[in-house]
Design the sequence.
């Protein structure tokens, strides 16, 4: 009911963080290109296998100041069973997925006040998702209509010949190549675009066709872990090529480029091999630390910060984007807050109720001191309160989703509720 949404609103209002004037409105009117790194964990950044960098291109974005990226090295995924779909959901709604299953599927017809719709209504953006898999996977071709995504370029738009496809779908290199003309079509439309590029090759079980690997596999004897580095390099090379193509088409300089990892690629079933690769025991705390995924962003005309150490998560991306666009996040129901804000709160909930902070972590029922790695036998009141808060935040989130509570909420006066029937996907409607 509307009373329930008031309780949620009271909470999200308190979590809201004021924009940072240095960034507010700096992305307004610019094209936004958002790149999804499938199964990419942050430990790959700067990682050397046999003395060689695994992802030299991404590393260059992190370290080359002239490239003007800001890299958040304490950014965590917050996904649950919905994996990729949860990451998409978190980034465009600042809501967590459901504790079980995938909100994309089970909450696929709820009312949302999501980023693509807001950008469309307020600033005339055309939003589009690019993905070389069938449109029905994760219920995308339905829920995107409820999120106000204007265009969905699924596998029917790509040349899915055998040599172009592996594992779940289109390989990343042909994916980015073939996406270029589609992006150019978007660029011809009036108003800026918000393009979401979803990669796929660096996905379990991390396979490439013969001759497509540029580095040797690791040698732990655990094939999943061993191949993980090779597909990561393949993804890295595909990005390098994509950036070059964007530059050639004149689409790089004035576009916001944002890159994020969706979730882990290596599960706890591979702790033995991971210990070998990282040279340390994979304890529950270490595993929680391994849930870092990359987040990097470049906003034309704004100096990159290099490496930003703030503790942040996927739920924080939408309010960050709103502020970059010059839209105050204040009146929206959002569980995250602006990552560039000086008021951003440094705790990152995981979907299972665990959470990370700068000094300590709560993992599988225990508090840990981050610097010593030791269990904190007597947590402080403040720590216990934080744990309760995380629990409360997640329960409010679930109320929003289960009660479809955004039906009862109007973020601003002339907000037009998203009407799914306004959206149609497929070449027939282009
Ligand atoms: C499939 C792709 C994979 O289209 O997004 O999803 P995941 O298995 O990572 O959730
Ligand atoms: Mn995924």
Sequence:
């Amino acid at each position: 009911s509307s009373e329930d949404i008031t309780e949620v609103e009271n909470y999200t209002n308190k979590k809201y963080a004021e924009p940072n004037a240095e960034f507010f409105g700096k992305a307004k009117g610019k094209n936004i290109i958002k790149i999804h790194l499938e199964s990419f964990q942050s430990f790959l950044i700067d990682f050397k296998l046999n003395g060689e960098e695994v992802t030299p291109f991404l590393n260059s974005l992190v370290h080359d100041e002239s490239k003007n990226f800001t890299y958040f090295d304490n950014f965590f995924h917050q996904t649950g069973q919905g994996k990729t779909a949860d990451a998409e959901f978190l980034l465009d709604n600042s809501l967590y997925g459901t504790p079980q299953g995938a909100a994309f599927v089970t909450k696929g017809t709820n009312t949302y006040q999501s980023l693509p719709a807001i950008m469309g209504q307020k600033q005339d953006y055309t939003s589009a998702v690019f993905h070389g898999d069938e449109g029905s996977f994760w219920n995308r071709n339905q829920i995107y209509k409820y999120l106000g995504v204007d265009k969905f370029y699924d596998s029917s738009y790509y040349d899915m010949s055998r040599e172009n496809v592996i594992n779940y779908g289109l390989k990343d290199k042909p994916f980015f190549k073939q996406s270029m003309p589609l992006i150019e079509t978007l660029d011809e439309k009036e108003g800026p675009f918000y393009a979401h590029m979803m990669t796929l090759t660096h996905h379990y079980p991390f396979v490439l066709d013969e001759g497509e690997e540029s580095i040797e596999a690791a040698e732990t004897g655990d094939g999943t872990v061993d191949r993980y580095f090779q597909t990561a390099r393949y993804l890295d090379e595909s990005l390098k090529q994509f950036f070059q193509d964007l530059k050639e088409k004149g689409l790089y300089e004035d576009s916001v480029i944002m890159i994020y990892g969706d979730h882990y690629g290596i599960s706890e079933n591979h702790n033995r091999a991971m210990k070998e690769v990282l040279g340390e025991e994979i304890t529950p705390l270490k595993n929680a630390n391994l849930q870092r995924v990359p987040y990097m962003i470049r906003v034309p005309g704004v100096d990159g910060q290099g490496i930003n150490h703030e503790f942040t998560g996927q739920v924080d991306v939408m309010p960050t984007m709103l502020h970059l666009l010059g839209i105050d996040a204040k009146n929206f129901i959002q569980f995250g807050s602006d990552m560039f804000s000086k008021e951003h709160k440094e705790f990152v909930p995981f979907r299972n109720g665990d959470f990370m902070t700068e000094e300590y972590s709560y993992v599988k029922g225990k508090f840990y001191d981050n610097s010593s790695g030791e269990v904190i036998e007597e947590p402080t009141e403040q720590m216990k309160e934080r744990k309760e808060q995380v629990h409360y935040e997640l329960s409010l989130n679930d109320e929003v989703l289960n009660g479809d509570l955004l039906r009862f909420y109007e973020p601003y006066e002339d907000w037009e509720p998203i009407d799914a029937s306004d959206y149609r996907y497929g070449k027939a409607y282009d």
